[in-house]
């Protein structure tokens, strides 16, 4: 049972590293070290804990890491888990690109000569989406506040 738990936990750590990598728009060396260092630290810590004979995890990671099925399972978890994330990102980029998506696409196609006028529709769309979101939040806040005042003003029933 401990082996199954460790496989599931390892899969979550691998998937987290890939999702964070995919969702990051630009990288610095520090970000790369922290994202993938998390994965390395997970294995180092678990291998150290697996080496202590008095703990319940004794030799679990050594046995798991020595099995090809463990590594195939990690690849399968990462692949299957990243499918929906990548599909959602592709649909979002294709149907409703943000200003960053447009700039990155222009960089990839070597169209770095964009003027602010060419990017204005994307910024306008982003501005409209943000305005609609904030307006919706403000309307919801007003509605909730008015409901609270109505509840507080209601006469108490004394039965």
TrEMBL record:
Keywords: Membrane, Transmembrane, Transmembrane helix. The chain crosses the membrane at residues 29-49, 70-88. It holds the Pfam family PhoLip_ATPase_C. Residues 2-98 form the P-type ATPase C-terminal domain. This is P-type ATPase C-terminal domain-containing protein. It comes from Eleusine coracana subsp. coracana.
